[in-house]
Design goal:
Strand content: 5-15%
Bound molecules: zinc ion
Oligomer: single chain
CATH topology: Beta-carbonic Anhydrase, Chain A
Order of helices and strands: HHEHEHEHHHHHHEEH
Function: Reversible hydration of carbon dioxide.
Radius of gyration: 19 Å
Protein name: Carbonic anhydrase
Keywords: Lyase, Metal-binding, Zinc
CATH class: Alpha Beta
GO biological process, one term: cellular response to oxidative stress
Catalytic activity: hydrogencarbonate + H(+) = CO2 + H2O
Distance between the termini: 66 Å
Structural class: alpha/beta
Shape: globular
Helix content: 40-55%
CATH architecture: 3-Layer(aba) Sandwich
Length: 213
């Protein structure tokens, strides 16, 4: 029996999906054609097992998205910076979510020592985390160490997000919330990371990164 190519069958599924959504929510596509008002900016991994809108049970128009390998925030990355600026300043999202996930290939690569070409500078922040926490990681199994780096990477990314003036301004002026999550690809469940900061750290961050209008 001939196996249908996944791309061909996906195009067929799209027609069925569009018809089903139009039936369930007759005004959705007409509303989306006018504009978007997402309340969530999702920054996650490009991994095929982490489809943000699906796993949140949301619809087109609900989530503004940036995904890259291992959900890394690089302070000088033009792509994620443009997405964050547009989502926070212009779309005025209420929540910024940075989500890491279990079994992340980018994290596994950074915990190994194979040369990976252009991926090496991209994964550098993960190797820096590895270096900083080497002792702790060496005392763990490979799975535990990988999950620990996933968590530390999200915490580091949240720190960098909160060093961006556009984010600081939105937190102060309209209560923008920044969240760290870990997605378990083995069960489909999200877990929130503790994002509480000591008062002193908040003060130091504002004094150092808040720019004057
Ligand atoms: Zn990943």
């Amino acid at each position: 029996m001939a196996v249908t190519d996944v791309y061909i069958s996906a195009l067929d599924h799209n027609k069925e999906w569009a018809a089903k959504i139009a039936q369930e929510d007759p005004t959705l596509f007409a509303t989306l054609a006018i504009g978007q008002h997402p309340q969530i900016l999702w920054i996650g991994c490009s991994d095929s097992r982490c489809p943000e809108t699906t796993l949140l049970g949301l619809k087109p128009g609900d989530v503004f998205v940036h995904r890259n390998i291992a959900n890394i925030i690089h302070a000088t990355d033009l792509s994620s910076s443009a997405v964050i600026e547009y989502a926070v300043r212009h779309l005025r999202v209420k929540h910024v979510v940075l989500c890491g996930h279990t079994s992340c290939g980018g994290v596994a690569a950074a915990l190994g020592n194979k040369p990976l070409g252009i991926l090496d500078p991209w994964l550098l922040p993960l190797r820096q985390i590895r270096s900083l926490h080497l002792k702790e990681l060496q005392g763990m199994s490979a799975t535990e160490a990988s999950l620990r780096v996933v968590e530390l990477n999200v915490q580091e990314g949240i720190k960098l997000l909160k060093q961006k003036d556009v984010v600081l301004e939105a937190i102060e002026k309209r209560g923008l919330q920044v969240h760290g999550l870990i997605y378990d690809v083995a069960c489909g469940v999200l877990r929130e990371l503790d994002s509480n900061e000591p008062e002193e750290a908040i003060k130091a961050r504002l004094a150092s990164f808040k720019l004057e209008a």
